[in-house]
């Protein structure tokens, strides 16, 4: 359950990051969770971390002026909605500490 909540926080962060732009996260997949991260080291009162390896699929509008800087965007294939989709990876470390979960996840 804690991994699911951590992944949800990561998704919320990604969505919040791209919400003001012309891009949209259309798919988010947690590839794997390494627990604990950093060879199991504990960081004082903070404790251990989990590493979440994830992949996000983002779609952009080819006609939007903000996307004109993308090289050869006019040649990229479109999805069913007329958008150009691409994938990107992420590796984030999230702390297991109860206080951090309450602060970041609102638990």
**SS strand fraction:** 25-35%
End-to-end distance: 12 Å
Instruction: Figure out the total of helices.
Output: 2
Q: How many structural domains can be distinguished in the coordinates?
A: 1
* Structural shape: elongated
Radius of gyration: 17 Å
Order of H and E elements: HEEEH
| Unreliable parts | none
Helix content: 10-25%
Strand line-up across the major sheet: 1-2-3
By secondary-structure content and strand pairing, the structural class works out as alpha+beta
Q: Mean of residue pLDDT?
A: 76
* Total DSSP E strands: 3
Q: Please give the largest β-sheet.
A: 3 strands, antiparallel
Word description of this protein:
The chain contains two helices and three strands. It has 107 residues and is an alpha+beta fold. It has one domain. The model has no long low-confidence stretch (mean pLDDT 76).
Could you give a quick summary of the protein structure above?
The chain has 107 residues and is α+β, with helices and mostly antiparallel strands. The chain is 23% helix and 34% strand. The protein has a 3-stranded antiparallel sheet with strand order 1-2-3, covered by helices on one side.
């Amino acid at each position: 359950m804690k991994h699911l909540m951590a992944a949800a926080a990561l998704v919320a962060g990604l969505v919040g990051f791209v919400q003001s732009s012309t891009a949209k996260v259309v798919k988010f997949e947690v590839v794997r969770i390494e627990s604990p991260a950093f060879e199991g080291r504990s960081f004082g009162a903070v404790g251990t971390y989990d590493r979440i390896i994830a992949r996000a699929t983002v779609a952009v509008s080819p006609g939007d002026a903000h996307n004109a800087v993308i090289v050869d965007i006019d040649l990229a294939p479109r999805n069913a909605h007329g958008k150009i989709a691409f994938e990107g990876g992420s590796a984030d470390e999230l702390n297991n500490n109860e206080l951090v979960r309450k602060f970041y996840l609102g638990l």
